Amino acid sequence: MNMVHLLHSYQHYYESSIYGRYINSDHIKGLLKRHSNHFDVSVIGSSVLGEDIQFIKVGNGRLRILMWSQMHGNESTTTKALFDLLNVLSDNQDVFVEDLLNKITIGIIPMLNPDGSRAYTRLNANHVDLNRDAQDLTQPESRVLRSCFNSFKPDYCFNLHGQRTIFSAGIRNKPATVSFLSPAQDKERSVTVTRRRAMDVIVKMNSTLQEVIPGQVGIYDDAFNINCVGDTFQSMNVPTVLFEAGHYENDYNREVVRGLMFQSLWTSIVQLGFEAIPGNLESAYSAIPKNEKLFYDIIIRNVKLEIAGNEKILDLGIQYEERLEQNQIVFVPRIIKIADLSNFYGHRELDAQQKTVEIGKFKAIKEGVEIDFVILNNEKHSLNVEIK
């Protein structure tokens, strides 16, 4: 499989009209209209609050791949990557793309949870996690996905998500920038033929990603939960791959990771279009490190604190809380852990050198406190995200 012609041209296919973390249905309406000139774009249902759920059918090949994004409304990175991918697939001057689309058919739900996407929440408008509703199908969005699955009859499913900044790729100082999973399909987490096929796809994507983010690919936890969509579809013997867009250094808008997800999607569909999937790469899949929860956004190390009348040297673990304000996502730093964090890592780290720190007048250092800056040795350090 030759990636060169595409990877060198990514900026040509990059969809510049959508950017950053906040993507709702308004942002993609024009794109859907434009792509309807090339593909079959249709409305397949509506959300709790009556927003359209769109479906894009691409290609006319025998092998069928179903993809859906923004099941969780605040996980928008893969939605951006999908529209980058659609720009490639609409290039009717590319003979390679034409050949690919004669071999595969792709069904895409770019935004399964438009209500959650507008509110920038994980849940839908009824405060239900759609990824825990695969069996009961209590929500209209869940029923839309199941109906689409039943009618499209996919050979493979791609379940597209985003994950928090807390994850490392293994027990080491490497963020899980991209994570994958071939979900379990039974309580015993048996390695079935179906799971092996999904594993083969992940191994191929990992191989290409290691060239650009070595050591920063992880495997998500495969604890079985039949209420999850991926586990349900896997249990129905359709190979299903979970994609998780994670953190890259200083990439809080997830634009670098967007490109990596695009690369992964392209790698996988080309593999499925042109290569046999023997299902024999379990050992290579198992060698990919497991996700661990070892990161904070910021760690301030070696802070002198007075606790219950005693002086202690401890670390401050800070995470960003994402808030939607005036149609923008702001990242609010908050102290969430005061402890010895020597076994954890910070995406950014400061050293107090066993001295006291200041976080603002009348503010006590305690868990739960919002903190915009710290003063270390009379020097002020902003803790806010610098959006690029």
TrEMBL record:
Catalytic site: 386 (proton donor/acceptor)
Biological processes per GO annotation: proteolysis
Top-level taxon: Bacteria
Keyword terms of this UniProt record: Carboxypeptidase, Hydrolase, Metalloprotease, Protease, Zinc
InterPro entries: Peptidase_M14 (IPR000834)
Keyword Ribosomal protein found: no
Gene Ontology cellular component list: extracellular space
Pfam families associated with the record: Peptidase_M14
Domain Peptidase M14 residue range list: 9-388
GO molecular function terms listed in the Swiss-Prot or TrEMBL record: metallocarboxypeptidase activity; zinc ion binding
SUPFAM superfamilies tied to this protein: Zn-dependent exopeptidases
Family: Belongs to the peptidase M14 family.
Name under which the protein is recorded: Zinc carboxypeptidase
UniProt source species: Gelidibacter sediminis
